[in-house]
Each structure stands twice: as structure tokens, then as C-alpha cells.
Amino acid sequence: MVIFDHDNVVVRYDRAKRVAVMAAALDRTEEEIAAAVFGSGLEDAADAGLLSPEGYLHALGERLGCTVSRSVWAAARAAGTTADPRMVALVARVARRMPVALLTNNGTLLREELATISPQVAGLGLPLHASGDLGVAKPDPEVYRRVARLHGVTPAHTLFVDDSPDYVDGARRAGLRAHLFTGYDPVVAFLTAEGALGGR
Asked: Is residue 49 a part of any domain in this protein?
């Protein structure tokens, strides 16, 4: 099987735009949003599975002094998320040959709102495994082994693609064959060499 990272591999993620859109929607400054979301530890707690989606949104609202709805959160995340058409097509092409999954260090909320955040990716109909669901995150080798087990595949028969050197290293320590994503052409070469695109 092949496991692809989500942010900055299949989609481009712009955190600043996400913050700006949420600030405008909630009538708060961008500094207030960034501090509440990223500086408070809330995002990390959600990514680790320590906060449910509802618990995360409630805690975020408490910090900001307002209600933060799912729709506001998802709209802001969607504003900062742009699908890469070539990568979406490539993932679909690989998925016609073998099992494919997405693995992201994000809370459960991203998985639940994927159709809003990235309809092109959601339209692929592939499983997206969020660290908030799994209770373990990249680069812990266990997260890669766990996803492989969920799909009935051994690490040695699993390919992994990510833009983070640390996460790629973690996958290799787990026994996967991993590629550091730097662009479309290199990942096509990697997948072709590994037989995921029909040649070796």
C-alpha cells in the first residue's frame, strides 16, 4: 500500500490564510487567533487525541471569548487548503492499483470536515487517518505500523510520502520505504521505481 501525507503533499496548506479568515469571521485579531489556536497548546492536544472536536471548539471559544462553530472552523481551514490537482490525480492513479490511505497529524475535526476543507481529496473516497483518532502521531514509528496494520499490510510492503524529513525518518524506522516529498516529478519517479505506478 501507499500512505500519503495530506498537508503540503496532496494539498497546499497556508496557515496564515486560515488564521486571517478565522479572525475576520470571529471579529478578533490575527494575533489573538494564532495565540489561541497554536500558542495555547489546544491544536497540539487535539492532534494528540486529547480533545474531542467539541471539546476543542469549546476550549478555543473560551480562549477567544466567543463561540467557535464547526462551520467557522471548517471554512477557515478550507480557506487555507488548496488541493494540488496533479497530486490528487496521482493519488487516484495509485489507488487504482493498490490500497492508498492518507495520514495527517491533525485532530479528528479535520477528518470529519474533510468534505468542506478539501472536497477534491474527500472525493477520492480514501481513508484519512488523523493522529487525533489514532492517539499517536508522526514521527512515532508506531503510527505508521498502526496504519499499515489497519489495512492488513506489513511495514515492509508499505510506501510512505511526506514533506517532513522527521516524519520520513520515523517511517523508515518503522520499516516502511519512505520518500521525502519535494515535488511532483520526484515522487512520480519514486512511485514508479517502487512499482506503484506499473513499472519498476
From this structure: yes
Residue 182 CB coordination number (10 Å): 9
Residues 87 and 162 reside in one and the same domain: yes
User: Which is it for strands 81-83 and 11-13: parallel, antiparallel or unpaired?
Assistant: antiparallel
Residue 199 lies in a domain: no
The SS3 call for residue 143 is: helix
The rounded distance, in Å, linking the Cα atoms of 197 and 52 is 38
Cell numbers standing for residue 99: 490500497
Question: Would you say residue 142 has pLDDT above 70?
Answer: yes
How confident is the model over 151-168, as pLDDT tens digits?
A: 999 999 999 999 999 999
Could you list the residue range(s) of the whole structural domain that residue 151 is in?
2-12+83-193
The structural domain count of the chain equals 2
Which H or E run includes 32? helix 30-34
What single-letter amino acid sits at 83? A
The DSSP bridge partners found for residue 160 are 3, 178
Residue 199: pLDDT over 70: no
Give the tens place of pLDDT for each residue, 104-133. 999 999 999 999 999 999 999 999 999 999
Beta strand 11-13 pairing with 177-180: unpaired
Strand-by-strand arrangement of the 128-130 sheet: 128-130, 100-104, 2-5, 159-162, 177-180
d(CA 10, CA 87): 5
Whether residue 40 is found in the same domain as residue 75: yes
Cβ pair 93, 197 in contact under 8 A: yes
Residue type, 146: R
